[in-house]
Amino acid sequence: QQELLQKSEKLSIVGQLAAGIAHEIRNPLTSLKGFLQLFRSKLGKEKKYDDYFSIMFNEFSRIEEIVGEFLILAKPQPKSFKAMPIDLLLRDIVKLLDIQAILNNVQIFTDVEPGLPPICCDENQLKQVFVNILKNGIEAMPYGGMIMVSARRSESGDLSLRFADQGPGIAKEQLAKLGEPFYTTKEGGTGLGLMICHRIIESHQGTISISSEVGQGTTVEIILPPAMPHCISNSAPQESQDG
Ligand code: ADP
Ligand code: MG
Prior knowledge:
alpha+beta; histidine kinase; single chain; 6 helices; 243 residues; binds adenosine-5'-diphosphate; two-stranded antiparallel sheet; 46% helix
């Protein structure tokens, strides 16, 4: 069972609105948080109040996370494309998520075919995609497990990146919903992670698809074209770009 993510058009209306709100919320939020910190320094000595403050700060983090994801989604992020070796990108990300993986008893293995051509990418944005996918993998395995990350060249000459986890898998009905804004099965989820991934991969002239079967784990595959010789900063990976 496989589903190609391509639901991002649905964002245009909802997302623009949400981003507008997110943007407006951010400043007052920062100010509120500052005052809260001040109060905590005065009142937090009392255990009871300190507990309340902890709850409030947790709730703040949650709002910040949602607001942050909205902003990533809706603001057309300025892109600066560069030819980058894929193994380097993956290594950085695995390192970044190491602590989270260890805490969750998850091991991440990477297997990168030697001699792969670089990809023309916006480093930060592509890393954001890898982080979102790996986080989903980690979150799918609350009792631990393995995530295999592999990169190889496909027959067509494109680069294929796969992230395979040993989680519970995704039922067919749910698979069709992936990539829709706000679709989440997690208590603390935003349901925006995959949509962000799709957006970014699309802007890299690539595709992202998810295959999964209940009880068999989930594999996310990203296909990206290899960098062309003219891949330089601030230009699209191929041809021209608009909107
Ligand atoms: P969130 O992680 O905030 O829920 P995402 O867009 O990242 O939002 O993912 C949407 C949903 O897709 C998740 O809630 C989950 O149900 C499903 N999903 C994504 N990745 C996996 C995975 N590796 N294993 C199982 N389910 C997954
Ligand atoms: Mg997610």
